[in-house]
Design brief:
2 copies of one chain form a homodimer. Chain A has helices at about 25-35, 55-60, 65-70, 75-80, 105-115, 130-135, 155-165, 185-200, 210-225, 230-240, and strands at about 15-20, 45, 70-75, 85-90, 100, 120, 140. By secondary structure, chain A is α/β, with parallel strands linked by helices. Chains A, B: Its EC number is 2.1.1.200.
């Protein structure tokens, strides 16, 4: 982060919109249109079902071609969020995951209030995000909706989140904060990977059929703090020490 | 959510959504879906281009059939708004008409604050409301939008207005969260003590004169998450596994 010569701190960067395994090119185009209406331009695609580029996306974008042209393609949610300090998962269903649940406006405030890049995950049209996708996120965004008729499509979910985010554009500068941002997701993943390896060697994952759930539990609690890059480095030093490597001196 | 036992006045009735000369049945269906997602059920149609009912509306409504079935048909905006105390016209363009211009959230507040039925007018897909339609309204609703890319379609305009209106409804209250509270400090201390002992044995604390600062750093980052009692127990299991104790089974 570069220092700011004036009085107010730099605003948080615009969030990236990440479409996870989207099915229809048309919906990718509609999401791009929804984003650009409210000033969001950074789209990331994780394993779109029909590949990328998709000829059906452009016509549905109604002129938001720049968003599609700049869209980046990834193989996994972990890679798509590697540079992000805050990951939000949009979901309408209750999950077994215990994370804070935010409305779109609360999420927009959170994105602006804290330093570091944010990513917002949107799941496939039919099924929404998988539990493992949600496990990567620090918070959940849920649009409060008619309990008797909840039928938001992908582009509608995107537009509501983008709209809320856009509300504070051009308004007073965000509150000053000199907190360091959370470490990029890739650094957190590195630490989780190191711990997994150590625990595997220690016979911690038993019985085998419960291992995925156990790993999700660990991931959830390690994602919760929002540790800074320095804190993650410290913890990796702790793990290395516990693994019997020589302490630094 | 408990109901409010009496003291507050009756809420203003739900606003009617009036589609003025809509062109495509598909868009009427999408608007119905957008409305019902946020609890609005009263649609009025003024001179739809292709007549009414329209066989393309139902499939696009994705289950919001009740809105379409109850939709009322009118020949003019004046007739469609005859029973309404407040008429709002949605438009993105500057008009020669001097009326208050509200954002969707300000309009939602106005609809709730004043007694009497409100109507919200939405124009045809391609051209929007005519000057004569806007002239019937008391206020204008404009969605603040990217000045370099304003491309909201009819259903998107409807959903943003409906969403804002719904925020003060019961469904829009912040989602319930059943997050557990952080563990008592004593349990956290127990975990930190366990880790300290292990790190001491691993030779982590070196050089000795920096040990107090290192311990403070660790304490700070372990205090940051606000882990629950269950999470602290999980972490103590992790530590025990790393210390070579037998895994639980």
């Amino acid at each position: 982060m570069t220092s700011n010569s004036g009085s107010s701190p730099l605003p948080a960067p615009k969030p990236a919109i990440i479409l996870v395994r989207p099915q229809l090119g048309e919906n990718i185009g509609k999401a791009a249109r929804a984003m650009l209406n409210f000033g969001l331009t950074e789209m990331r695609l994780v394993s779109p079902r029909d590949g990328w580029p998709n000829p059906n996306a452009g016509p549905a974008a109604s002129g938001a071609d720049q968003v599609l042209e700049q869209a980046k393609l990834f193989d996994s949610v972990a890679e798509a969020t590697a540079d992000c300090a805050h990951v939000f998962a949009t979901t309408v269903r209750k999950r077994g995951v215990t994370k804070p649940v935010l409305t779109p406006d609360a999420a927009a405030n959170a994105i602006r209030a804290e330093p570091g890049k944010s990513a917002i995950l949107f799941g496939p049209e039919r099924s929404g995000l998988e539990t493992d996708d949600v496990a990567l996120a620090r918070s959940i965004i849920t649009v409060p909706i008619n309990p008797e008729f909840g039928s938001l499509n992908l582009a509608q979910a995107v537009i509501l989140v983008a709209y809320e985010w856009s509300k504070a554009e051009g308004l007073a500068s965000p509150p000053a904060t000199d907190l360091d941002p959370p470490a990029p997701q890739s650094e957190l993943e590195g630490m989780i990977g190191q711990l997994d390896t150590m625990l595997d060697a220690a016979g911690y994952f038993f019985p085998p059929d419960r291992t995925p759930a156990t790993k999700r539990t660990l991931r959830t609690l390690l994602t919760k703090p929002g540790w800074t890059a320095q804190e993650v480095r410290t913890l990796r030093g702790v793990l290395s020490a516990l693994a019997g490597k020589k302490p630094r001196n």
